[in-house]
Structure formats: structure tokens, C-alpha cells
Amino acid sequence: MSDYRAPVKDMRFVMDELAGLRELSQYPDFAEATTDMADAILDEAAKFTSEVLAPLNWTGDREGCKLTPDGVVTPTGWKEAYKAFCDAGWNGISCPPDHAGHGQPDTIAVAVKEMIQSSNMAFSLGPLLTTGAVEALLTCASDELKAIYLEKMVTGEWTGTMNLTEPQAGSDLALIRSRAEPQADGSYKVFGQKIFITYGDHDMTDNIVHLVLARLPDAPAGVRGISMFLVPKFLANADGSLGARNDAYCVSIEHKLGIHASPTCVMAYGDNGGAVGYLLGEANRGLEYMFIMMNEARLGVGLQGIALGERAYQQALAFARERKQGRDALTGEALVTIDRHPDIRRMLMLMKSRVEACRAMAYFTSGLLDRAHVIEDAAEKSRNLYLAEFMIPIVKAGGTEMAIEVTSHGIQIHGGMGFIEETGAAQHWRDSRITTIYEGTTGIQANDLVFRKLMRDQGATARYVFGEVAATSKALAASSRPELQVIGKRLGEALQAWIQATEWLAANAKTGLSGVLTAAVPYLHLSVTVCGGWLMGKAALAAAGYLDQGAGDPVFYRAKIATAHFYADQMLPQAASYAATVLAGDAALAAVTDEMF
Ligand SMILES: Cc1cc2nc3c(=O)[nH]c(=O)nc-3n(C[C@H](O)[C@H](O)[C@H](O)COP(=O)(O)OP(=O)(O)OC[C@H]3O[C@@H](n4cnc5c(N)ncnc54)[C@H](O)[C@@H]3O)c2cc1C
Predict the structure, then answer these.
(1) For 181, which DSSP code?
(2) Which of 159, 164, 176, 196 to mutate to test the pocket of ligand 1 (most atoms within 8 A of CB)?
(3) Of 284, 505, 526, 529, which alpha carbon lies 20 to 30 A from 96's?
């Protein structure tokens, strides 16, 4: 069990230096998003998350959720914390002001979301799904549905869910079988079973708004025959008051490795005559609408990994500063705290540097999405959007795969106590394990990067990124500071490995498909490694600039440079080995027959 202190200083630095917050506040839509406003919001969020949400993280994990005849009951304190969360306005922080939101840019909201997830990941999933559903309604709901549902979901009075998965349809949504039958009054009756539905039922709000993917009777087979329906737990009257109970029930909840306090529900629609639903947008375009929301959702899950890595780092650091074992190998001093041992220091710095690299990527991508939203020039708008979409699988897979390794280091630093549940280190690792699975597994992210993001513009976005990385490497190498020169050199070498691997993928995309599919995940890891180094390098340059001017907090800036240097020494050399794996393609795998497994 550990306290949580939001890393506000690093968050603010990344927002200003890498995500471009100052520039963003010059656009009328974000005129209020000044640096002063960011300071005020982050300070409040830090207080709320550490005082209200963090203390419930461990108790929620112990107690879990229960399914009773009256529905799902959340752990002690959940209802009160959710009310306080909504009363403070955190639910709608980035939602549009004309629907009761606060209209803050993602560049600020991303830090608030990280704090909510760090302090209590299981709690954070309810609001995350609700915001996703709000995004869907904004994209494709009729004005009538918007008038009834949007404001209540933005304020958190009602929560939202996303119902894609069925027993036979996980990564492959073409296999969805749930169906919807048109009714004379223009509504639909929805039938089917959905599994793994996060916050599918709970006791925190009076109503729950399910967004359900299902097929119309005449729908074509495959992904082009899926429509999206709004299916409320209680039907709503035109004035927003509650009507009859709908035929949408949670029939069981899953027992899971982690996120015990987040109810994961099997949902039955239509077992008692049909669940009333309303078509969202046009028929057969449901998956397309889902993909519009995918950027935010995948960025949000990448951020979960970063948040858990940060929490595990804080806990491991606190433990290492207290636990005494062994002699200091360098000074000979007897019985020292374990943070004096170089191997423990190495693990702590691996945790810190990888979390900071992934945070840099996530916030940078939020800044791109904000710019794509407000910039009017069409070419600039699409350049920002393409770059953001290129970064999304890198942030999602990078943040979540990092979290599993970093939370595991957290356990290792605790020694045997890390394996004991009461310590709390194990919970971070257990909670992180789902993040590489939902919202598209790492394998699916790799395919997205290689076959969509890399290929769709004939590599133009990738070439733009390569140019930016090269410019950063050159600027670092030209610095008078030796540690920046080292970062520049290692970044340049890693970039060459990335370019070589990318050229190999392009050359083999048509004629060596099996090799490219085999290489996709190693290529994704390579991309994560280099992009992390690129943004850490940019951070080091900015920190050096402040040190040269004698401005700001010198300890923080020196730490930023040391962390980037550590990342360059320990992580960037891995780019070459990932590239070698990519270039090996399926040479060995192709020789493996089914009987050999
Ligand atoms: C705790 C939890 C919460 C969830 N919340 C929700 C929710 O709120 N709403 C919702 O709709 N769903 C939810 N899900 C479902 C989740 O999104 C799916 O589990 C996920 O998409 C993977 O699908 P699957 O489990 O069927 O695995 P599968 O699709 O069967 O995948 C199994 C393995 O095969 C690999 N694989 C599959 N296809 C390919 C391919 N084409 N190329 C390469 N590898 C491939 C995968 O990477 C994976 O390693 C949740 C799941 C869990 C466990």
C-alpha cells in the first residue's frame, strides 16, 4: 500500500516543452487553457486524486464487486468517491462546454486522466468508458437523443459503456452476432449476449447508457454490416426522467487477475422480449463510428500503463529508501538502505526513465490531436492528425508493455515483500496486465502501425518523423554538454536501425507478407524505443536551455538530463537488436510445422 503524489512538475514540463500548451492557448477554442489555468487544474486534481481516490485503490482491490439480485454492488467508498468526482466536475473536463463540459484541451486533460488512473485504475475505467460513449453521441446521435442523454453523461449523472465483444467476436468484430429488429415507432429491439463489459452494471448512478454493436436483419456480412445502438438500463422520458426498466441485464461478473473493483460484466440483451434501443447515426456504419473514437480510447489505455508505471515507481522508491540490507560495495559502509546498491538504482532509473519517455509520447500525441482539432489550414490539420494517428499504436503498446515490465521491477525492488499482497506492489503489476489486451492487443496495434499507419501515405508520415528525430539528434550532438552529445550519438544510431527496419518492411510488404507479419511486434517495440529516445532528447535540450539561462529549478532540469542520458545508454541500444529481429523476418518461423509445437 502506498501514497500517491502526482508528478506535477514533470507533467507541466512535458505539456509546455513537448506538447506545445503555450501555442495552443493562442487558438480561440482554447483561449482559457493558459499555463496559469493548467497549474490551477493540475494542483486541484493532484489534491483530489491523492486524498479521495488513492486511499480506495487497495481496499477496492481487496473487496472487489459483488453481483446481487439487485445488480452489481461496488466496493465500500466507491459511490461517495464517484459523487465527489462528479461534483468537482472532473468527468467532463475535456467535453464541450455547450453540453455541460469544461472544454479543456486534451493537452491538459491528459495529465488529469493520468492522475485519476495512477491513484485508482479500477475507478478510472467508469469515467473513461463514459467519455468514450459521450464522444460517440457527439459524433453520430440525433439531436433528440443528444438532448436527453448528453448532459447527464458529461456531468456523470449517468455512466456509459461500450459493448463490442461477444464470446466468438473479440479482436475480429466481423463475427458479431447480436441483432436488432426495427419497430413501428422507429426504435429497435436488441437481442444478444455481450461479454467483458466494463462497468456494465453498478450502483453509483440511477441509469447506465449502453452503446451496443448489433446487426440489422438485412445487414451485409462482415464489418460493413454492424450498426451502433443506444440501449439504456432504464428508458428515459423526453424530459430526462426515468421510465421503465429495459431488458438489459448483467447476468454475471468475471473473477479477474486485476482491476477487481471494476465490474466486468456478461450482459444479456433481450432475454425477456427485446431490449429497446435507438440507432446511432446511419445503419451499418457502427464500426466506422467506433474507429473515430479509437484514437482517444487507445491513447487513454496507453496512459493507464504510464499511470501504473508511475505509481509502481513511487512505491518502489519509497521502499528502497527505507529497507536496509547489505554493505555499500563502494564505500564499505555497513548496513545501508538498498537504494545505495547500483543494481537497485539501475532498476529505479529504468522505471523512471521509461515512464517519463512514455509520458512524453502520450502528451505529445495529445497536443497533436488538439492542434488537428483547432487548426484551420487543411494541410497542417491533416499533418497533425496523421502524425497523431501514427503515434497512437506506439503510445498504446509502448505505455502498456512498459507498464508490465516496470511494475514487475517494482516487485523485484521489494524482494520477497513484493510477492506479498499486503505490500501493494503486486497490485500494480496485476492491474497492468489487462492493458496490453483490451482496446486492441499489442499484436493488433502492431498490425495497425505496419499495415495502416506506415503504408497509407506511402511512408510520408514516417519520413517526416525520421527527419524530426535526425534534427534532434544533430542538435544534441552539437551541444557543449558531453551527456547531451552521448544522447545525440545513440539517438542517431537508433534512428538508422529504425530506418533500415522500415525500408525492409516496405520492400517485403507485398512479396514477403509472412515475414512482415512476424516482424510487426518487434518493429513496434523498435518504434517505441526510438520515439521515446527522441522526445527524451528534446526534453534534455529544453532542460539544458533553462540551465544555461539560470532559470527555474536546476535540480529538476539536471534530473531531466540525467534521465534522458540513462534512457539513451540503457534503452536506445536495444533498437539495433529489434532491427536485427525485424530483418530476420520469418526465416526460422517458416520452418516450424504444426507438429513441432
Ligand atoms: C477486464 C476486461 C475488460 C474489457 N472491457 C471491455 C468493454 O468494456 N467492452 C468490450 O466490448 N470489450 C471489453 N473487453 C474485451 C477486450 O476488448 C477483448 O478481450 C480484446 O479485444 C481481445 O479479444 P479476445 O479476448 O477475444 O482475444 P482474441 O481476439 O481471441 O485474441 C487472442 C490472441 O490472438 C491474437 N490475435 C487475434 N487476432 C489476431 C490477428 N489478426 N493478428 C495477430 N494476432 C491476433 C491476439 O493478439 C491475442 O494475443 C474487456 C476485456 C477484459 C478482459
Answers:
(1) E
(2) 196
(3) 284
Answer whether 438 contacts ligand 1 (Cβ < 6 A). yes
Could you tell me the pTM of the whole model?
0.97
What is the rounded CA–CA span in Å between residue 74 and residue 81? Answer: 11
List the residue whose alpha carbon is closest to atom 17 of ligand 1. 438
Closest atom of ligand 1 to 440 CA is: 21
Q: Mapping DSSP to helix (H, G, I), strand (E, B) and coil, where does residue 72 land?
A: strand
Going from the Cα of 179 to the center of ligand 1, the distance in angstroms, rounded, reads 21
Q: DSSP secondary structure string, 373-430? A: HH---HHHHHHHHHHHHHHHHHHHHHHHHHHHHHHHHHHHHTGGGGGSGGGSHHHHHH
Atom 52 of ligand 1, nearest CA residue: 196
| SS3 state at 66 | strand
**Active site (catalytic) residues:** 439
Q: Hunting for cell 413501428 — which residue is that?
A: 184
- Backbone φ and ψ of 260, nearest 5°: -60, -30
Listing DSSP states for 133-149 in one string gives HHHHHHHH--HHHHHHH
Q: How far is the CA of 81 from the centre of ligand 1 (A)?
A: 30
Tell me if 171 CB under 6 Å of ligand 1. Answer: yes
164 lines ligand 1 (CB under 6 A): yes
445 in contact with ligand 1, CB cutoff 6 A: no
What is the 503 CA–ligand 1 centroid distance (Å)? 30
Backbone angles phi, psi at 270, to 5 degrees: 85, 15
Taking only the tens of pLDDT, the chain with its 597 residues reads: 679 999 999 999 999 999 999 999 999 999 999 999 999 999 999 999 999 999 999 999 999 999 999 999 999 999 999 999 999 999 999 998 999 999 999 999 999 999 999 999 999 999 999 999 999 999 999 999 999 999 999 999 999 999 999 999 999 999 999 999 999 999 999 999 999 999 999 999 999 999 999 999 999 999 999 999 999 999 999 999 999 999 999 999 999 999 999 999 999 999 999 999 999 999 999 999 988 778 888 999 999 999 999 999 999 999 999 999 999 999 999 999 999 999 999 999 999 999 999 999 999 999 999 999 999 999 999 999 999 999 999 999 999 999 999 999 999 999 999 999 999 999 999 999 999 999 999 999 999 999 999 988 889 999 999 999 999 999 999 999 999 999 999 999 999 999 999 999 999 998 999 999 999 999 999 999 999 999 999 999 999 999 999 999 999 999 999 999 999 999 999 999 999 999 999 999 999 999 999
Q: Is 74 in the pocket of ligand 1 (CB under 6 A)?
A: no
- The answer, yes or no, to whether any atom of ligand 1 lies below 6 A from the CB of 13, is no
